[in-house]
Design goal:
Layout lengths: L4 H29 L12 H17 L1 H11 L7 H21 L17 H8 L2 H12 L3 H24 L6 H28 L6 H16 L6 H27 L1
């Protein structure tokens, strides 16, 4: 009987151990199976931890969407500039009218990518607006203040429009800003053209033939931009329009002063 005591004690301890171990194992497996796939269940609990981290990461990714849309709204140049917002509100009826009568064509613009304000061709294109600036200054110095001032302002408006046009092709400027710049360009360009034509009508005896010829060539280049309306061909043709129309303005303004 003394010899069998250790055996009985060992048997009793084994029974108690098996009773305590089985429920713990079963409970652990049930808790893991509710969160992980069967192949992710590991004895060290790493599968449960990986699942928890994955769900936390997924939640973070979903929350990124409204942040990016808010940032896009914050980067709107017009909304953040009260002057531009006021100009847009003033010109909004005219923009809506042009969109309506032209089906959106009048305020559309050419895609000049891959050129931008930082490329040689893009910078050369912008530099052609200097022709208007020089013409405006010269006419003003000769005493032709109205056409000179309008031509000078038109040079600035044209530069701003084409700058935004170039940057829009690279995704750096919003469509809304380019359309507004184009509308402002229209206002001053047509104002200068109307004044020049009034001069010709009021005093037809001093019509400069070279100015008319230059205007005709410039218009041919401008109309060609609506055929080749993207990239390098557009840039070349529109640059020629700047140069020939600037000379036409100079010729008409100079003839009127005389």
């Amino acid at each position: 009987r003394r010899t069998n005591a250790p055996s009985l004690l060992s048997s009793s301890l084994s029974s108690l151990s098996s009773v305590n171990t089985i429920p713990r194992s079963s409970t652990l497996l049930r808790s893991r199976s509710s969160n992980d796939n069967d192949d992710d269940v590991k004895s060290d609990g790493s599968g449960w931890m990986a699942s928890f981290l994955k769900s936390s990461t997924d939640t973070t990714q979903v929350q990124e969407i409204p942040v990016s849309s808010t940032a896009a709204t914050a980067n709107d140049d017009i909304n953040n500039n009260p002057v531009l917002a006021a100009v847009e509100n003033t010109l909004s009826p005219a923009q809506e009218y042009l969109d309506e009568v032209s089906g959106g064509w009048a305020l559309s613009y050419a895609d000049l990518s891959p050129e931008s304000s930082s490329t040689v061709l893009g910078q050369t294109f912008l530099a052609t607006n200097i022709a208007y600036a020089v013409t405006g200054i010269y006419l003003s110095m000769q005493g032709e203040l109205l056409l000179g001032a309008l031509t000078e302002i038109a040079s600035i408006a044209s530069f701003i429009y084409h700058y935004t046009q170039l940057e829009a092709g690279m995704g750096k400027v919003k469509d809304r800003s380019v359309r507004l710049a184009l509308m402002v360009d229209y206002v001053f360009a047509f104002s200068a053209i109307i004044v020049a034509n009034v001069y010709l009508i009021l005093d037809p005896s001093v019509i400069p033939i070279d100015g008319i010829a230059s205007a005709a060539v410039g218009l041919a280049c401008l109309f060609s931009c609506w055929i080749w309306e993207a990239g390098t061909p557009y840039i070349i043709l529109h640059s020629l329009w700047h140069l020939f129309s600037a000379y036409a303005g100079y010729a008409v303004g100079s003839a009127h002063v005389m």
